[in-house]
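call fold(seq) -> tokens
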Amino acid sequence: MSQEKSRMPVSRQIRYLRGSRDNWKQNSAKKQQKIRQYEQTIRSVKISRDNWKTRAKEAEQRVKELEKKLEKQEKKSQLSDSKPSEIVIENSTPVSGHYYNLQTIQVCLKQVLEVGNSYPWSCQDDENICSKL
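ret:
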């Protein structure tokens, strides 16, 4: 707005230009504040991401360790598969004084001892059960 072409008085032109400049400064300050906020957000997100990355790596390492430990335990359990409690007698030998054969009694005892199932005769004390076998 030059003086020669404008019909506005100079004081009004100055007020207009000052207002325009002040609006520009406010908008610029708002943009700078947003830029600072975004930079802070970026920093905090980066820190958080780094923390999660280290936690994930530690968790992966822990999983690998636990898998190795599990493999070792599985190998040990495969070696110790021949427990006497797991031996099942193939033939059904009758036991004197009992209605059930030896294989049935063995399966029932295994269930009582390992699983916790209950049978009417399992309430008796161990000496009576062993003497019946």
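The radius of gyration is 43 Å.
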